[in-house]
Amino acid sequence: MEKNDKKDLNVKDDSKTYYAEGMSLGICFGVAWGIIIGVLVDNIGICICFGISIGMCLGMGIGSLIKKDDSNDK
Question: Which of 8, 43, 58, 68 is most buried, by CB atoms within 10 Å?
């Protein structure tokens, strides 16, 4: 196997977006909304799980749409 056939795990992604920030905020808001809805429907465990997954998906989607500005790095 040649060197070119191996995938380099240290290669950075050129797209600069807010994936991690969006996902972390989505998880936080998802837990909060999951607790609120879980108390109202008297099933906190399931609602927290749904809140986390929905919040993470929405946060990742929103974070992927916002591009980072690299003008401060120069």
Answer: 58
Has residue 70 been placed in a domain?
no
In a domain, 56, yes or no: yes
- Three-class DSSP labels, the chain: CCHHHCCCCCCCCCCCECHHHHHHHHHHHHHHHHHHHHHHHCCHHHHHHHHHHHHHHHHHHHHHHCECCHHHCC
**pLDDT of 11-42, one tens digit each?**
555 568 888 888 999 999 999 999 999 999 99
Whole-prediction pTM: 0.68
74 lies in some domain: no
